[in-house]
Every structure is written in C-alpha cells, then in structure tokens.
Amino acid sequence: MRIDQLLAGQDPSFSFEFFPPKTPQGEENFERALQELAPLAPSFVSVTYGAGGTTREKTVETVRHIKDEHGLEAMAHFTCVGATTVELRVTLEEIREAGIDNVLALRGDPPVGQADWVASEGGLEYSHQLVALLREDYDFAIAAACFPETHIHATSPEDDLRYLKEKVDAGVDFLITQLFFDNALYFDFVQRARDIGITVPIIPGVMPITGYSQISRITSMCGATMPEHVLTELDARQDDAEAVAEFGVSYATMQCADLLAKGAPGIHFCTLNRSPATRSILSALRLWRPWDAAHTGLGEPRRPPAVA
Fold it and tell me: What are the angstrom distances between the C-alpha of 214 and each of 150, 209, 217, 243?
C-alpha cells in the first residue's frame, strides 16, 4: 500500500527506520528488532542505503523480506550515487517487481573516502531529477528528506528551502526530517516551508539517545545540534551507559509527545536496528495519546475521532 494513503488517516503515523545488516551478528540483531517491533503495528518501515549506494541490492532484498516475512509496509531508500540513469531504472524495475510501493528519493552521500559529491557520468546530479524520474515513469509513493537545521552542504537556509520546494514540486508526496533534538527547530522549519508553498506532510525524524559517544558521532556527521540543557544532562551521565539510555528514552518520549500534541503528522524513529528504546517510547505514547489534544496551524489539522 502507498504510504501517502496511509498518512490520510485520522491518527498519527508511527514508523521505523532500519539499515541493511552487514554481518551475521548484525543479521541477528536486525531480525530480533523486527520480531520485537512488528507487533507494535507501525504504519510503515524504511530501509536505508549505505554511503555511495553500497547496499543497493541489500536494501531491496531487506525491504522485500520485511514485507513478505513480517507483513509490514516497507519503503526503500533510493539514491542516484554511483549509477547511470539506465542502472537506476534497472533497480527501480526490481523494486517494482518486488511489490514495493514506496521509495524515499535521495541524492545520497559520496562514497567513503570521497569528500565531494560528484554525479556519475550518465547519471543524475540532483535529487529533484530523481523525483521527476520516479514520478514520470513509476507509480510509487515518493518521500524525500528535509533538514530543520539546513543541509550541511546548503549555502543558506533560504537556498535549502528553495531546493526543497523544487524537489516537492517535482512530485514528492511526503517529507521526513533529519533527526533533531529541539522541537522549536521543527516547528520553525515547518512554518517556513508552509510560507513558501510546501503543503505535503512533514514527518519529524527522531533518534532516541542510547549511547553517549554514539550520539556525539552521529550529530557531528549530520550537523544536528543538541540543546545545552540536554548536553549538560548527558555529560553528567557519560560514565554510566544505563543512565544515558534511560535519560535518552525519557527525553525522546517527551519530545515526541510535544510534537504530536502540537500537530506533527507522526514520528519516524531511527532505530539503529535495536528495539528497546523505540518500543518503550511508542508504548508510552499510545497510552498517553497526546495527539488527542492537538490543535495545529501547521496545515495538517488532526481530524476528530468518529462519533459512535
């Protein structure tokens, strides 16, 4: 089923991001996470590409496995790195033949060891070109990424939004943000997007903090910032891994509740192929139901529940 149709429901969507495992131990961790998270009935899950498109075949295989073996709606991340247009079409045919209905269109990161992004000869240079190719020739629901704190390679926030508008106008059905830890950044970004005419749903991407050094590494790579008060709490716990994880779950639960209460259309959890944090947060949110109180000016009003 197309995810854009799922997003039309009255309740918020909850979705999980996985990456293709690379080792036998990784396979075990991934399968365990799937088995523990599948009963939570997510609206959909997504599977990433490696840098430089290094897991292209594995991504398609993993999405097919999730759909066939676990019965979950799944979306394949898809980049134009390291491939000609002909090669992109070959992979897209494989995706279509696998019964996959949803694609997250990305320009992608350069291969490991390559500092600058360079388009392949005979390939595509920009993500809006990939979106246009998908919209013209394939009946997929198309997602794209967006950046509340501005893409690390963008020349300005204004240029970043202008390129995003170009991408959406090419045929994007919904957006998923890069991770962030200050909700004000999300709400400001959504308002700026609405102001320039971007009307598609913008789903916040949330990564629960589960490790001190891990989150420092990830934020430095993607340019996400951490509020000072959160850093202070993490620094006070840095020598106690369990305390860091407990704080991370508590903070992400409050972050998600605030997003949903103020009208965010859902939450996309970056799971890192682990289940405990995401399972705890989503279980608490479903008991809490902060979205019932949502009154939003973000262009995505929550519809009231039907009267019995």
Answer: 22, 8, 5, 14
